[in-house]
Amino acid sequence: MPQLFVVVSTHGAKAASETNASLGKDSLRMDVVKSNDDGRAVLVETTKADPTTNRTCLSSAGDSVTKWKVLFPEPNKLDKFTSPIRGDPLYFLVYFYIKQDCVHDFIDLLLEEAALVHELEKGCVRFDLWQSLDNPTDFVVLESVADWAAIEEHRAFPHYQKARAALENMQAKPRSHDKGYKVLHSVGANNLSTSN
């Protein structure tokens, strides 16, 4: 089974001007999103190319770039990666900083949580788990939901409450997130794209 990677690149105004960009040869999906906090544009690219050895991703020199390997969904479920985001969902990147001795427990917990979110939560558009290639104790959950009601529903589920309680003792420092992103452009390897 192939390993998939994600490159998150801060392009500022440049990303907004690239909303009609197409995918590179190893790319499966590209989302250009705009921060609700400060208006900065961010490119999130899913690729088959290892970004530590292969610079075929769309980011360019001078960008703030972070590189991740995909832990969930499994790479054999490529439809999750090759379909663009449709409509106007909420899009969040939640950063977790985990104690070294808790990494395996954290991954097990979040893989179970991700499976339950996809199975039980109708408002879930995407729930991905990524691990940093530069610091394997850092993780991101990309969470995309249909609307604010889906966020409240997510927080009310027993599996969320259980995972949140378990996370408290695993974190080296508190998780961080922002007020979300608006999807400006999304393109997938199935040649479909959407712009909002």
Fold blueprint:
Elements: E1 5-10, H1 13-17, E2 27-35, E3 41-47, E4 64-72, H2 79-82, E5 90-98, H3 103-120, E6 124-132, E7 138-145, H4 148-156, H5 158-167, E8 171-176, E9 181-188, E10 193-195
Antiparallel strand pairs: 1-3, 1-4, 2-3, 2-9, 4-6, 5-7, 5-8, 6-7, 9-10
Helix pairs in contact: 3-5
How would you describe this protein?
- The protein is α+β, with helices and mostly antiparallel strands and 196 residues long.
- It has one domain: Alpha-Beta Plaits (2-Layer Sandwich), CATH 3.30.70.
- The chain is built from 5 helices and 10 strands; from the N terminus they run E-H-E-E-E-H-E-H-E-E-H-H-E-E-E.
- It has helices spanning 13-17, 79-82, 103-120, 148-156, 158-167, and strands spanning 5-10, 27-35, 41-47, 64-72, 90-98, 124-132, 138-145, 171-176, 181-188, 193-195.
- Strands 8-5-7-6-4-1-3-2-9-10 form a 10-stranded antiparallel beta sheet.
- A hairpin with a 4-residue loop joins strand 9 and strand 10 (193-195).
- The longest helix is centred in the middle third of the chain and has 18 residues, at 103-120.
- Mean pLDDT is 80; it is low at 56-61.
